[in-house]
Inverse folding.
């Protein structure tokens, strides 16, 4: 571990409260001029890093969850232990998980990604299994009657019918991941958590940076939620038929 | 330094600083469990009542989405910038973070109880309060406890990070101060935070398991 923590790397971004505009001197909640000036060198890079962190965590998390869910769905014996395992991972507080990984993976993005991925398992595993198990016996009987093989039944019947539950899980996992990813910046100055920690670790909390970065995080989470909701509608047109 | 030796150092730190760790674990627990208690007292009745009335789906959904989207450290920062550093100011921020999972799970637990069962209870002459407490609450208990567990882990994690803003005096102070306590101290404190959360969550998970076994339909 090195001493690379907290306020490191924030340097030029943090205003000198003695100079600057009146808004900054009085530490108002939102100084437009600061946000405008530092969008390019602080907020936008942090936002892009945050999107990158989230996409990787969700991609890997979804892949692992899907494989584990297939295992738990196909072999019921594994379902309870896998469910309990994903529960267990979620019981470790984010901050402790990040710190405990530092000796193993160092101060790298990997150290942030591992807990993020493991938290998505908690949400995705159960949703995927529940979605697949939710397909009614009559539907499966009909599929067999039509002469579909086991694989065809899975791909053409079970998976599409489970899609709403899977996508609902993905929405929850996405919003959670975006929010929890900010905590990782305590260790590695990366993502939207970095400006948030920079602002908080100043003796007099720098309100504009805190509100701008915190607000961007919420905005990113809600935008992702809406986009996934639209995807859910587009992918499962039948669920709108009543 | 090898990975193993770092962990060995952490355990050595635990051995040498037992009283420091116990004391800081105590103040972290005090902060986290006070907030969790208040969040339960507010979120649980509200969620149960809305679920019983089958009203406020929008509130439950909104609370759960917004609750998940809120970056916890930013909220702590806003509260400290606004109200100043203090035990109750941070507690208030933690309460706000703890309520959504408790409220949403309580709502969906009660809302999801089969209508036939509730109708049967009503037919047997149970009052609305009796239906809620004797029928819906026991049947929804596993899901309700799952919400409490999620809130507990979240509140403990956030109470730890609150140390960044100079609040707490708990285990978080050690975690954000590698310069004073060294990497071994940080690691040891992280173990303690994980242990507090794990013990709390495992107790709630056991209660959840017991509740769902008791409520499972008998063959």
């Amino acid at each position: 571990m090195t001493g690379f923590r907290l306020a490191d790397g924030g340097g030029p971004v943090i205003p000198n409260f003695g100079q600057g505009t009146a808004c900054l001197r009085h530490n108002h909640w939102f100084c437009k001029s600061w946000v405008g000036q530092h969008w390019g060198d602080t907020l936008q890079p942090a936002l892009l890093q945050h999107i990158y962190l989230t996409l990787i965590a969700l991609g890997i998390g979804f892949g692992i969850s899907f494989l584990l869910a297939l295992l738990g769905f196909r072999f019921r014996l594994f379902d309870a232990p896998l469910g309990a395992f994903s529960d267990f991972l979620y019981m470790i507080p984010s901050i402790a998980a990040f710190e405990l990984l530092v000796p193993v993976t160092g101060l790298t993005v990997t150290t942030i990604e591992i807990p993020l991925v493991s938290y998505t398992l908690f949400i995705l595993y159960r949703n995927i299994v529940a979605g697949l198990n939710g397909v009614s016996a009559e539907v499966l009987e009909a599929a067999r009657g039509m002469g579909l093989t086991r694989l065809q039944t899975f791909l053409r019947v079970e998976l599409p019918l489970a899609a709403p539950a899977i996508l609902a899980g993905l929405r929850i996992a996405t919003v959670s991941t975006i929010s929890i990813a900010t905590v990782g910046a305590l260790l590695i100055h990366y993502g939207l958590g970095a400006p948030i920690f920079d602002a908080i670790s100043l003796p007099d909390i720098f309100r504009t940076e805190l509100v701008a970065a915190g607000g961007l995080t919420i905005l990113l989470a809600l935008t992702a939620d809406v986009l996934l909701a639209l995807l859910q509608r587009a992918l499962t047109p039948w669920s709108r038929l009543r | 330094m090898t990975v193993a030796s770092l962990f060995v150092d952490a355990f050595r730190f635990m051995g040498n600083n037992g009283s420091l760790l116990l004391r800081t674990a105590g103040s972290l627990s005090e902060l986290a469990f006070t907030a969790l208690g208040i969040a339960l007292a507010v979120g649980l009745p509200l969620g149960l009542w809305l679920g019983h009335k089958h009203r406020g789906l929008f509130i439950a959904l909104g609370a759960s989405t917004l609750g998940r989207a809120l970056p916890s450290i930013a909220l702590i920062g806003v509260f400290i910038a606004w109200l100043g550093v203090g035990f109750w100011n941070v507690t208030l921020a933690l309460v706000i973070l703890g309520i959504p999972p408790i409220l949403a799970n309580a709502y969906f637990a009660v809302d999801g109880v089969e209508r036939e069962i509730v109708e049967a209870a009503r037919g047997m002459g149970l009052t609305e309060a009796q239906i809620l407490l004797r029928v819906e609450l026991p049947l929804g208990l596993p899901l309700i406890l799952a919400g409490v567990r999620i809130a507990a882990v979240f509140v403990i994690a956030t109470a730890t990070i609150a140390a960044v803003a100079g609040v707490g005096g708990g285990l978080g102070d050690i975690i954000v101060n590698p310069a004073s306590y060294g990497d071994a101290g940080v690691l040891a404190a992280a173990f303690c935070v994980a242990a507090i959360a794990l013990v709390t969550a495992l107790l709630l998970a056991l209660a959840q398991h017991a509740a769902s076994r008791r409520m499972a339909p008998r063959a």
About this structure: The radius of gyration of chain A is 22 Å. Chain A has one domain: 37-235. Confidence is low (pLDDT under 50) at residues 1-13 of chain A.
